[in-house]
Amino acid sequence: MDQFIREVDEEYRREQIAALWRRYGALIVALAVLVVAGVAGWRFYETRREQQAQAASARYEEALQLARDGKASEAESALSGLTGEGPDGYRLVARFRLAAETGRREASDGAKAFEAIAGDAAVPGALQDLARLRAAVLRLDMAEAADEAVRGLERLAAPSNPWRHTAREMLGLSLLKRGDVEGAGKWFDQIAADRETPAGLRSRLEIYVALVAGGRVQTQ
Questions:
Q1: Mean pLDDT, the chain, as a whole number?
Q2: d(CA 97, CA 116)
Q3: Rounded to whole angstroms, how far apart are CA atoms 2 and 7?
Q4: Ranges assigned E (strand) in the chain
Q5: Within a domain: 187
Q6: Is residue 96 part of a domain?
Q7: What residue numbers bound the domain in which 135 lies?
Q8: Looking at the 3D structure of the chain, how many domains does it have?
Q9: Same domain for 84 and 38?
Q10: pLDDT tens digit string along 39-95?
């Protein structure tokens, strides 16, 4: 009797499965095809993206090598081409590097290039601030723009800004160069009081404090 019941139960399940297949078989096959196609498409996309990243990396390294070889115009041209092509990350890195190379040739042009990055809403906020920092540093040695640069650095020196350490260092050095040892000392004090100040900057701080203690710096 038990064997008979099991056979009847198995036969019932087979009939149920057959009925479900007759009713939904086409849909199941279609779903399976979609899943396979989706996985294949995703893998193709990932492979394509990896290939693009590798190509962009190679082009970026070539541009850096041109810069190291002293071929500034060729390097800038290569970087400029990369800013409009390739993955987003490499386009942004190329924009930063192109602005830096431009700044080596002409500080005001480099500052404008960094400010363009800072004004791009598509760039993450922290990187916008980095671009503002780089622009301000370039303008520090430009007499007509030094005060503007200082104001920009002061905004970046806020306690919550991730670039505050460099901003404070640049402000302190700028004032020290101008002979304002008291003003420089205040920025160096902020660096010393910040628990998150990087170790390398703390090492340099010892030299800065000694310069402040020595009084006005004579510059040519």
A1: 85
A2: 13
A3: 9
A4: none
A5: yes
A6: yes
A7: 106-149
A8: 3
A9: yes
A10: 878 787 677 777 777 888 888 888 888 888 888 889 888 888 888 877 778 889 999
pTM of the model as a whole: 0.72
Residue 219: pLDDT above 50? no
Residue holding tokens 């087979």?
14
For residue 14, tell me if it sits in a domain.
no
Closest by CA to 60, choosing from 110, 98, 94, is: 94
Of 114, 149, 184, the last residue of a domain is 149
Q: Are residues 110 and 98 part of one domain?
A: no
Q: How far is CA 214 from CA 10, 149, 167, in A?
A: 97, 26, 23
Are 101 and 79 in contact, with CB atoms under 8 Å apart? yes
In the block, tokens 């779903």 appear at: 31
Residue type (1 letter), 165: H
On whether residue 199 sits in a domain, the answer given is yes
One-letter amino acid of 18: A
| Burial (CB count <10 Å: 0-12, 13-18, 19+), residue 172 | buried
